[in-house]
Amino acid sequence: MGTRAWALLLVLCGTIFLEGIDVAMLAVAIPSIRSDLDLPTDTAAWVMSAYVLGYAGFTLLGGRAADLLGRRRMFLTWLTVFLAFSGLGGFATEGWTLIVARFVTGVSAAFMTPAALSLITTSYEEGEQRNKALLVFAGTAAGGFSLGLVIGGLLTQLGWRWVFFAPVLLAAALLVAAIRLIPAQPRAGEPGNEKSPGRPRRRTEGFDILGAGTAAAAMLLAAYAVIRLEHGLDGWQLTAGAAVAATTLLVVFVAVERRTPTPLVRLGILRTGSVVRADLGALLFVGAFFGFQFVLTLYLQELRGWSSLQTAIALVVLGCDAILAPTLTPRLVTRFGHAKVILGGFVLAVVAYGLFLPVGMDWSYAAMFPTLIIAGTAFALAYGPLTIAATDGVVESEQGLASGLLHTATQFGSAIGISAVTAVYGLVSSGASAGSDPDATLSAFRAALIVPVAMVTLGALLSSFGLRSRTKPPTAGGKPTAPANTTAAATTAATTSTTAATTTATAVAAAATTTAAIPAGPAAPANPTRQIPS
Fold it and tell me: Is the predicted pLDDT of residue 515 greater than 80, yes or no?
C-alpha cells in the first residue's frame, strides 16, 4: 500500500481504537465519578446503561445507513457527534448531563463503527491489500480496549474528567485527517462505483423513515427491558411493559418492511439459515463471555479486595484474542472450515467456564490463569468464524445490514448475559447475608457462573447444526446472485475481531451498569460500583 492508503487506514484504525478506549476508561473511572459528583446508585448505573441503550438501539439503523446514505458522510458526521458529546461529559457537574452525553455517544458509535468498517472493505482492493488492512484494523480494535483499561486507571489518578477529554483530543485529530483522506463517494451507478451502493440515487432510492423509527424505538425498549432483568421481580411491571411495547413495535416494524418499496431491512435476509444461526450463536457466546467476566470482576474486587487497576491488569490476558484472531483463526478456518472452528470455540468456552465453577476463597492468579487464557482463545476461535457465517453469501449492498444484525445480536447478548448472572446472584443471595458473609457471597458467585456455562453449552448444540448445513446462494430481492464479499478466510476472520473489540467495549458498559445497580438488592457486595472486564 502507498503512503496515502496507510494514512487512511491509520485514521480508520484510530477511530475504532478511540471507541474501545472510551468505554474502557469510563468503566474504570465510574467509582471516582460517583464519589466526586455524589451520584446515587441509580444515576451511576444510568451513566453506563445510557451508552448501551444508544448503541444497541441504533446499531441496526447505523449499519443500514452506511449502505444507503453514504459511508463517508456517516463516518464524518458521527465522529463529530462523538467528539462533541464526549467533551460535554468532561464538563458535566450533574448526573443527568453525563447520562445524556453517554447516550448520544452510544448512538454515534452505532453509526460510526459500521461506517468505518465498510470504508475499509470498499477502499482497499479485494485480496492481499484488503487482508492486510483488515488485519491491522482488527489488531488495533482489540488492543484499544485492553489498553484503555490501564490508561483509564492512570488518567483517573489525574482526575476523572481526563477520561472524557483525552478522547476529545484524539477524535479532533482523527476528524481533521479524515476530512482530507477519505475520498468522496460517487452515487450508485456512477462511473467508478457501478457495483458499490455508494450514496443512494435521490430519484430512485428512498429512505424508510417509518421503518427506521419503529426499529430504533423497538430496539431501545428491548434493550431497556433486558437491562431491567437484573432487578428480578423488583418493578417487574415496568420491565414487562417495556418488553410488551418492544414486541408490539417489532410487529409494526415487520408490517412496515413488508409494504415499503425500499425497506430498511429486507426480511428475506432472515430466511438465510447461516445468518440467523450465526447471529443467535454470537448472542449466546458473547452473553456467556461477558457474563463470566462480570462475575469474575466482582469476585476479584468485591470478595478479594483487588483495585480496579489491579483487576484490569489481571484480565488483560483475556485480550489474547487480539493476537490470535488475525493469526491463528484464519489458518484454522482455511483448513477445517468456519463451522468446525465455531464449534471448537464453543467447546473451549465450556471447558474454560467449567474450570472456574469450583472457585475458592483464596485462589491464586496462577489457578485462575488457565480459565482466562482458554476463555480468550475460545473467543478468538468462535467469534471470528461466527462473523464469517453471519456475512457469508450476503450481497455487497447489504453488508452494512448484515453487520448491523450481528452487532445488534452481540449487544443484546452482552446485556442478557450480564443481567442473567446478576439475577441469579440476587436470587441465591436473597435472604442470606451475602454482603457481610464471604462464604455466602462465594456461593452466590458460583451459582451465577452456571449461567455462562449453560449459554455456551446451548451455543455448542446450536453450532453443531452448522456442520451439516450447506450454504445457499445469496439472494437479493429473491434473485440468486454471486457472493460479493468472498475475501479469503483470513480477511473475514480479521474483520471479526474488529467487531469483537467493539462488542467488548459495549459489554463492559453493561457490566458497569449492573455493578452499580447491585446495591439495590438486599444482599449486595459492599463496594458496588467497581468493575472492569477486559
Answer: no
